[in-house]
């Protein structure tokens, strides 16, 4: 996999904004972890109780500038499908980029391997809580385009690589406009809009809108 994205359509950001964004990421993730830690312990216990498997699921995702990183999520699927990643790699093989009409949710939503607690934490987005550690590490930001699996980003065209110019986020502009319901072409346009218009005010707006989206569970897988 290429580690450096195309310089075409590269968007530069003021260093002051990037510094403030990083400080806010650290502060908000620390506060959120302190507040959510009791709930996270309960979720981890329930996952272990249901089938005895590990509570945390770790997967390679594509980060800023096309660099891979390990994303953390609460495990929502059973551990008996050891060939899942190999199936994903075979599933996504597009020679001319990811199709505009591709919807990741459509290919993943009907899955018998999702556990009972897994279905609940997916619907409520609680499975994403461990990504606060990714934010602390600097792999991710609170706000940004959602990180894709490597098998998908390996198929990106130079135009689609535009969404890799910033750190991926726990929530983002595309997430408050449909989350998993929107097609790839629309998601790309929304992510590029965010990248070109990044600001603290926009980030705050996205965070506030995210609360409503999570409460209504709109577009959740």
TrEMBL record:
GO MF annotation terms: phosphotransferase activity, for other substituted phosphate groups
Sorted UniProt keywords: Membrane, Transferase, Transmembrane, Transmembrane helix
Claim: Cytoplasm is one of the keywords in the record: no
Domain Bacterial sugar transferase: 22-215
Keyword Membrane found: yes
Coiled-coil annotated residue ranges, if any: none
Family annotation (InterPro entries): Bact_transf
Similarity comment text for this entry: Belongs to the bacterial sugar transferase family.
TM region positions: 23-47
Domain of life: Bacteria
Phylogenetic placement of the source organism: Bacteria, Bacillati, Bacillota, Bacilli, Bacillales
Entry-linked PANTHER family: COLANIC BIOSYNTHESIS UDP-GLUCOSE LIPID CARRIER TRANSFERASE (PTHR30576), UNDECAPRENYL-PHOSPHATE N-ACETYLGALACTOSAMINYL 1-PHOSPHATE TRANSFERASE-RELATED (PTHR30576:SF0)
Signal peptide (from-to): none
Name of this protein: Sugar transferase
């Amino acid at each position: 996999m290429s580690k450096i994205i195309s310089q075409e359509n590269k968007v530069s950001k003021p260093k002051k904004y990037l510094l403030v964004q990083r400080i806010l990421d650290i502060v908000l993730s620390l506060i959120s972890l302190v507040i959510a830690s009791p709930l996270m312990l309960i979720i981890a216990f329930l996952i272990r109780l249901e089938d005895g498997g590990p509570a945390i699921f770790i997967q390679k995702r594509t980060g800023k500038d096309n660099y891979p990183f390990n994303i953390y999520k609460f495990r929502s699927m059973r551990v008996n499908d050891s060939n899942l990643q190999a199936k994903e790699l075979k599933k996504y093989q597009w020679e001319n980029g990811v199709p505009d009409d591709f919807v990741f949710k459509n290919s993943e939503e009907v899955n018998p391997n999702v556990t009972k607690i897994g279905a609940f934490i997916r619907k409520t987005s609680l499975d994403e809580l461990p990504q606060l550690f990714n934010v602390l590490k600097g792999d991710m930001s609170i706000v940004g385009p959602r990180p894709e699996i490597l098998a998908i980003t390996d198929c990106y065209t130079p135009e689609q690589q535009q969404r890799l110019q910033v750190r991926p986020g726990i929530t983002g502009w595309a997430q408050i406009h449909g989350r998993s319901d929107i097609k790839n072409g629309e998601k790309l346009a929304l992510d590029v809009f965010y990248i070109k218009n990044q600001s603290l005010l926009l980030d705050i707006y996205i965070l506030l809108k995210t609360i409503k989206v999570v409460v209504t569970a709109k577009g959740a897988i």
